[in-house]
Design a protein that fits this description.
135 residues, rod-shaped
Amino acid sequence: FDMTFVRVIRLVKIAKMVRLVRAFRKLGLLIEGLFASVETLFWTMILLLMTIFCTGIMLVRIARVAQTDDPEGFEAAGLEEWLFLSSAWRHLLKMMTVDGWTQTIRASIYLDTAWGYIMALGMFAFTCLTATGLM
C-alpha cells in the first residue's frame, strides 16, 4: 500500500467522526445541561425530604391528639397508620406522587372532628406543595 492511501483512509475516518459529533451535538448539549443541574436536583431532594420529615412529625402529633379525643371514630376512619412516623412518611411519599392521596384525605374527613379536618388540610397542603410547587 502507498502511504498516501493510508493517509486518505485516516482522513475519511476523521471526517466520519466529525460528522457524528455534529449529528449528536444536541445530545451533547442535553447531557451537559444534565450535569450542570445536578447540584440543583440535589438541593431539591433535600428540600423534599425535609418537607416530608416535618409534615410527618406534625401529622403524627395531630393524629395522636385526634385518637385521644375520639378513639372509636379514629379506628373507624382507618387512620391508625398515622400514629407511627414510618408509616406516615410512607403515606406522604405516596401523596407526593399523587398516588391515592384522595382516599387518605377522605379518611381523615370521615373522622368528622376538628382534628380530622386539620389533618385533611395539612395533607392537602402537603400534596399541593410537593406535587405542584417543587416538581
